[in-house]
Q: What sequence folds into this?
């Protein structure tokens, strides 16, 4: 139910929500003497009339069957009731209505009058006018024909139908019990009317002994009004339920015809009741049945595939949490709303959390407003893995509530290296650096987590270059706070630091796990061009990007470039940037001679990686499956290593992808395409990682 509309709706509302422009027009002042259908005073008046309708539904068939002449007090009360409905007819000429084409409230008195006169006016008048009084007929002498005119008052029952329609849409009332009350009301009214009509047939039949009630009690007319009414209800209920004791049955043709139509009506009514009750019960128990089916299927799957107990627990926990949160229907509710409303809800719920995330510190509010609506909230049960170690990450996560453990696998044993709580983020390494996840993330309690896909995140960043650089600066600061993920001698290139997160020397496993996995990123801050040139004289340093992707002069991330394009872009950036310091620049040194030698500031070298492939035709560069190796210190060692890998020791020449011969080891770059030529012109090809 619309929250802003709640004060004008609810029990007295005509619908669950105002029809499109209704709320706007409700706030607009209507013409003088025009009544709004949403006015609470008019809704109270309608509820008062409903009690009178219930009285009319009972007294009208009862008077028709059992009262030969009306009691004076009853006549007076009936006329008072008729007066109230006459007042309602008068009010309908001043009642604004909702136009079905424009969906706005119409308050023109002329249009209101024409609409009412052409719809329900005639029926309302016929159900209100006391024909006996207007025709000056004595109540004691009125016949069946004039009594039938009083049955027109049952037209008022349409108000009860509208009431149940409103209650079924009102979320404050249980739908099951509302439908159940409606079915009971329909059944009781059918029983009451059938009993009264069947008694009229017996009462008006010439031979009272040949009637359904006279055959059992010839002097039934001398019985009290209460006894005759209860006997009629008894017959009606026994017939409706198809019990058929046989003590009361049709004795003449009139009664037989009535019984035939009544039993045919009972077939439809019984089917209607059984169908509705079945749907209500099935809907009520549907969630539990689906839950049991899912649990049984999961257990059968785990047994068939011999899953470990920990994985089985995670599967069952996920199913249980989904069962508990399924009734919330948060995604379903959000999906049916327009984008603007979804964005407003997301900003209201999650913007305070997102703007305090360290990765987004300092970015513009416009970027936050673009990111928040794209995030989806997910619930995770305790002890469930959100991210696995070395997983190719495709999503970025922000913790809304709960707590998580950061774990790594060391020689088959999981070690906790940190914790994450509400307001922190994870997954940025895989999303922004494009590297496998260096650690696993597991919940310790039920947690609500915002999820943002990598594709959407990077697409938004490409359109916000300044904020992109701020986010990368925040990421570098976060990595500096973390440190590297092992004690291996790795420079500040994140592509190597995070790829080696699970590599820990077995001989050091006796030390504290936190020390083994402590980060050693000491030189992540960008250096000036002058510093790099000074180091390049002795170690041939070149600049790489933190993302290990191409970065244009404006800092724009390009994620889809091929390795040759990336290398060309990096060379161009080295020339164009000059001496400008950039947060994207990280030294990656290539040394001549001993590759364990440190740079000018004592930085540690980074091993170059190549993958070699065999080529049988000198004119063909077709790639085959090869071997990934670390580039050695000399060409002789490179030839010897290639010969060992492929069992061929007559390799004499090496060329790159452009078929240019390589004479010095220092010109080989990380990820180059190399081709080894033997004396018989066979070759081995190297493919880029």
A:
């Amino acid at each position: 139910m619309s929250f802003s509309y709640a004060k004008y709706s609810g029990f007295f509302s005509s619908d669950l929500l105002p029809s499109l422009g209704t709320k706007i027009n409700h706030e607009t002042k209507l013409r003088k003497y025009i009544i709004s259908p949403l006015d609470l005073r008019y809704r109270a008046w309608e509820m008062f009339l409903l009690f009178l309708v219930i009285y009319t539904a009972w007294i009208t068939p009862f008077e028709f069957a059992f009262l030969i002449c009306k009691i004076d007090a009853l006549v007076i009360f009936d006329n008072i009731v008729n007066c109230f409905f006459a007042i309602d007819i008068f009010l309908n000429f001043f009642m604004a209505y909702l136009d079905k084409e424009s969906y706005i409230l119409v308050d023109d008195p002329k249009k209101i009058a024409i609409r009412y006169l052409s719809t329900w006016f005639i029926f309302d008048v016929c159900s209100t006018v006391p024909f006996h009084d207007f025709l000056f007929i004595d109540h004691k002498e009125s016949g069946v024909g004039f009594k039938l005119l009083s049955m027109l008052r049952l037209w008022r029952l349409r108000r009860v139908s509208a009431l149940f329609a409103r209650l079924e849409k009102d979320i404050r009332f249980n739908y099951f019990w509302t439908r159940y009350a409606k079915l009971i009301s329909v059944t009781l009214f059918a029983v009451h009317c059938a009993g009264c009509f069947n008694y009229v047939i017996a009462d008006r039949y010439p031979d009272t002994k040949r009637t359904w009630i006279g055959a059992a009690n010839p002097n039934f007319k001398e019985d009290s009004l209460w006894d005759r009414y209860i006997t009629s209800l008894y017959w009606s209920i026994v017939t409706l339920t198809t019990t058929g004791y046989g003590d009361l049955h049709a004795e003449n043709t009139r009664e037989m015809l009535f019984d035939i139509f009544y039993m045919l009506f009972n077939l439809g009514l019984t089917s209607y009741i059984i169908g509705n009750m079945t749907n209500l019960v099935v809907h009520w128990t549907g969630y539990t049945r689906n839950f049991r089916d899912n649990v049984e299927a999961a257990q059968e799957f785990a047994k068939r595939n011999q899953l470990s107990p920990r994985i089985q627990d995670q599967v069952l926990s996920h199913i249980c949490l989904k069962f508990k949160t399924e009734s919330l229907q948060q995604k379903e509710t959000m999906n049916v709303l327009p984008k603007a409303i979804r964005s407003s809800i997301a900003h209201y719920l999650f913007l305070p959390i997102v703007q305090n995330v360290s990765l987004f510190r300092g970015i513009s509010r416009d970027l936050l407003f673009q990111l928040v609506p794209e995030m989806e909230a997910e619930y995770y049960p305790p002890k469930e893995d959100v991210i696995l170690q070395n997983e190719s990450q495709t999503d970025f996560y922000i913790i809304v509530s709960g707590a998580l453990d950061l774990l790594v696998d060391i020689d088959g044993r999981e070690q906790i290296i940190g914790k994450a709580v509400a307001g922190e983020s994870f997954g940025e390494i895989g999303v922004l650096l494009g590297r496998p996840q260096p650690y696993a993330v597991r919940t310790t309690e039920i947690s609500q987590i915002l999820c943002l896909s990598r594709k959407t995140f990077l697409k938004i960043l490409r359109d916000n270059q300044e904020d992109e650089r701020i986010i990368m600066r925040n990421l570098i600061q976060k990595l500096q706070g973390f440190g590297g993920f092992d004690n291996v001698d790795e420079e500040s290139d994140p592509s190597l630091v995070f790829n080696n997160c699970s590599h820990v020397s077995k001989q050091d496993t006796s030390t504290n796990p936190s020390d083994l996995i402590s980060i050693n990123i000491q030189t992540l801050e960008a250096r000036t061009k002058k510093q790099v040139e000074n180091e390049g004289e002795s170690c041939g340093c070149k600049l790489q990007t933190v993302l290990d992707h191409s970065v244009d002069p404006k800092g724009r991330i390009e994620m889809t470039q091929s390795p040759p394009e990336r290398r060309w872009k990096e060379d161009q950036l080295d020339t164009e940037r000059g001496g400008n310091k950039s947060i994207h620049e990280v030294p990656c040194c290539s040394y001549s001679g001993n590759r364990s030698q440190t740079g000018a500031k004592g930085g540690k070298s980074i091993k170059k990686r190549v993958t070699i492939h065999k080529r049988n035709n000198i004119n063909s560069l077709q790639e085959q499956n090869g071997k990934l190796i670390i580039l050695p210190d000399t060409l002789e060692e490179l030839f010897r290593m290639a010969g060992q890998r492929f069992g061929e020791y007559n390799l004499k020449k090496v060329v790159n992808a452009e078929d240019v011969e390589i004479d010095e080891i220092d010109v080989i770059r990380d990820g180059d395409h190399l081709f080894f030529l033997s004396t018989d012109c066979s070759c081995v090809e190297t493919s880029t990682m």
